[in-house]
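Long-time lurker. I teach an intro course on protein structure, and each term I like to show students one example going from raw sequence to a predicted 3D structure in token notation. This year I'd like something fresh instead of my usual example. Would anyone be willing to generate the tokens for the chain below so I can use it in lecture? Attribution to the forum is fine with me.
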Amino acid sequence: MHSITPHPRPRWRTAALCGSLAATLTALDARAQDASRRTDASATLSLPETTVTGNPLGAAQTVAPSSTLSGENLLLERAATLGDTLQEQPGVASSYFGPNAGRPAIRGLDGDRVRILQNSGASIDASSLSYDHNTPIDPLTIERVEVLRGPAALLYGGSAQGGVVNVIDNRIPREPVAGPEGGVTGRADAAYASGARESSGAALIEGGNDRYALHVDAFSRDAGDTAVPITLGCARPGSPASARRICNSANRAWGGAVGGTAFFDRGYLGASLAGYRSDYGTVAEDDVSIGMRSTRAALEGLWRFPGGLIESVKGQFSHGDYQHTEFEGAEVGTVFKNRGSEGRIEAKHRAFGRLTGVWGLQWEGTRFSALGEEAFLPPSRTRALALFAHEELGTDWGQLTFGARVEQVRVRTEGALDAAGEPRFAAGSRRFTPGSAALGALVHAGGGWQLSGNLAYTQRAPKDYELFADGPHVATAAWELGNPALGLERSTSVDVGAQWKDGAHRFAVTAFASRYGNFIGLLPTGRTVDELPEYAYTGVKARFAGLEASGTVRLLARQGLWRGAADASVLDLDLRADAVRATNTSTGQPLPLIAPARVGATLRWANGPWGARLGFDHAMAQHRVPEGSRVTAGYTLWNASLTWRQKLGHAQLQWYARVDNLGNRLAYSATSILTQTVFPNAPLPGRSVRVGVQATF
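-- Reply from a regular --
Happy to contribute to a lecture. Here you go:
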């Protein structure tokens, strides 16, 4: 860990700053076939997308808007955080609390309104509590990330009004290794990035046969302060007083997992144990760092019942033990803990004509605590039990889907005393019964066109911090005050979309709108507590509306003349755009931290084992901010990459180099609270060259 030494500062700021893995390897024969296909240029630029989160019945198509990041795209776009890895996906932005903490925000919604899953199971952490808390998932070793947008994601949690981000790994193998004798497969990664002088590496190995499979993985990442195009001050002892780097942005993360599965004639049963550790600077203050640890155990099984009313039953259980400690130099500040378990059972019924469906039961329990003088919320316990259903009706013209979910949620706290034994937080308890439903349709319109639409009504129970918070929170630079009388958050949402595909050409556009009858926002009260502005969690009316679009145009496809596929050339142009407007209709003011309209394009070329990309992302200026907030200027960030594949014995090597922020442009994120609270100390990273190699065998 990069050392950080304290300096004098106001008392209220003490440590209120708060702040996996492995790749999914399908069957060995599929891995081998995929490696051989990658020698063809057209295959490189037409990687198949598979989204399973959006359709629990396993169908290839989803009515809800969805996308997948995997393969070479994931290799080139991955960053230190999940939010930064996904920010080029239409409709997805990063909360960006410096380079070490960034959670995905979907359609202007973040925090608990976006559900982050690991293999469709809960990720027990505290990332939704505060912007400076990172998720204990490192993109370095994941195999695939699926993004399901909008409230149709209610199947995976009543709070998922913005959508679901599902991180897929193979720590519990779900398919037997090909053949009765089996074999061994694996992957290794190594990379270096100049911007933060970051070195990273990961490795995994799997083996087994048609009766069992074993998995082992490990990763490590070590980075210094991030380079930026502006000179910034730094009060951290031992560091230069000024430098073209973000002060206190160093990071070290490491972890790994073991897992295994036994296969039988009608299903499988597997388990895994994973660990994640990270030490990183919080950026907002020069002397505060976070030491994070997370341990996650998971159990998963599938049983098939051919010929019965219930065709199969899938069960999942996970237990997470999360803790992070905020350090002021070497001194321990506040300690955050979140321990919890989640269970899920899905039963797929047999088809009744063209009607297929899944019914399920989900339960979750967490115990949260923040220990320290400046904890801004009391210890709490949350229990939730839910019943859900997803039905799909195939028709001659497409398909209809229907989903429903009803929950019982209890949130309670016993209160807490301060260091003098006086009451610091009051005790309280609330019960909620949220219910949600969604209806969707997909129409095959002919000529390669598909039309889709979704209508949903959702309810979300307030979280513990929205009910019981009462203290200084440096991440928001405010005294946060909960409201124990808050009611359910309610919304009605609709989206309509059109998709077209003709060979390598494709296009998709989705328009969406949501109205909230009781949107729970953190709003100023006009009062001051201990020299901090007071903000209270308040229910208001709100409206979200926006557009997402993406497409690919094949500009060139030249067949090989001399060496067959090895000398074929392909040139594609990827296009993307999104926009969202979010308004507090109770006051007429814009809601804070909303991404501006964005457009982007990437030109992709491949010839045999070679590939190259040149692209840009332009964010327009964000003028729609609440009164008194900072307007964010627009910017354009360019990137370029070069790849080369090489066969070495039984291994397939993928060499790559990527330059981010090619023009070294100074830019600030409109979705980052740091742009408002510590400006200009937390710009987006400057130019960085990343080189690496990935080996598969």
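Some talking points for your students: The helical segments are 28-37, 41-44, 71-77, 82-86, 464-468, 674-677. The chain has a mean pLDDT of 88.
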